[in-house]
Design brief:
476 residues; alpha/beta; Udp-n-acetylmuramoylalanyl-d-glutamate--2,6- Diaminopimelate Ligase, Chain: A, domain 1; UDP-N-acetylmuramoyl-L-alanine:D-glutamate ligase; Protein-Tyrosine Phosphatase, Chain A; 3 domains; six-stranded mixed β-sheet; 17 helices; UDP-N-acetylmuramoyl-tripeptide--D-alanyl-D-alanine ligase; peptidoglycan synthesis; Mur_ligase_C; UDP-N-acetylmuramoylalanyl-D-glutamyl-2,6-diaminopimelate-D-alanyl-D-alanine ligase activity
Amino acid sequence: MNNIEVSDILQSTCGKLLLGIPESRITGVSTDSRGTKNGEIFFALKGDNYDGHKFIKQAISNGAIGAVISSNQEAIYLLLQECNECILIEVEDTLKALGDFAKLYRNRLRTNFIAVTGSNGKTTTKDMIYHVLRNFNSVTRSRKSFNNFIGVPLTIFETDITHEFCVVEMGTNAPGEIRRLSEIIFPDFTVLTNISHSHLEGLGSIEGVTNEKAEFIGNMAENGILIANADDHRCKQIANRFNGKVISFGFNQSADIKASNVKRNNSGFVFKVNSANIVKLPVLGRHNVYNALAVMAMCNAVGISLEDICDKFIDFEPPPMRMEKRIYGNIVVINDGYNSNPSSMSAALEEFSQLTVPGRRVLVCGDMLELGDFAESLHREIGAMIVSADIDVLFTVGSFSRFVAEEAIANGMPEERIQSHETSEDASSYVTSQLRKNDTVLIKGSRGMKLENVARKIESYFSKKNEKSSALLNLV
């Protein structure tokens, strides 16, 4: 963060300075008292299960120069008594103030902001853009999946005058969130990966998802560019509503950046781009070819040639729990458990069915959350797909995934090859105990199902088993 004073917070948030002087400089912003650094200002956020106002003293003791607090807090009087040498700013809503301050800071930067949104692939695409673009420019990005009203401002605050580009992820599960996030980011580029049945509980329908994803249109920078999926008709609908420049990507021959001659292997894909340039992508999942095409379109939009981009994917590693492949002795685990919706589940099943495996295909299928009234029917659709995906053993986790099991049985999968569990804690030991030599396991479900518990149990058991085998061999 560069050249920011307390007065800038007051200006952007309409805050009231209770303690301190407006000319005081701040070095950064914190929302977590445990990680607060010297010179930062602490925003005391309040949620359903936490209240940052309880940790203001801890933040100050860790080096914060002061805090931004919500109005009508009973603690204000005590803070005025105990923190008389720090900065104290009162605002109506600390979460809104965080975004308003981020908006002011973003507008002072000359950095080009790239917003990545869509139903699937946001984090992987964001990380791929960073991975490729850093070969040519100074670039920063959102940490992990920092894509909400807290994560987006924090990403902006971590950007400084040395960064030519900042890649930010925009997520949503309720109407109006993309509008607000894009208002804060004011993107120079927006990358639209795809639109599918996700967050239906909050957005109501696929039309609601489409309308929500389109809310960035009114908040693009002048001469902003949209990077859109040419094979997704809902993305094309949004692109048609956008008045600026659109660069499309996909397999469709009408796309500006298009893939052809796609060949799969057990490590990833090799394909041609615009019939000339060869890309080697070391990531499982055909959907990741789309993500790579989006990256190429984005980097090409800033003047980097396709020829220079194509060899930059070779050492890319996906974010954790996104088609993450690990080998534990004779067991292969593909952990795609970060999140799930019907389209990403379908894509994972398609990829799994195409892999060459030495033994059984084992699927650990967790609930797809936030589907609202469509939950049962969409889970049943997945159950029908499982039979054609050549799954040998199915473990379901969660109440909705029982519909997956029921439909798999109805479509011909033997009942004895299916086991259902309510939680990942219940499933982890049982799944591990049932695995055999040369099994390949796909773990897929929504983040709330905590399927990493299953992955960890498999890793722990088979890693220890291999250590014992190695020790015995060394004794021979």
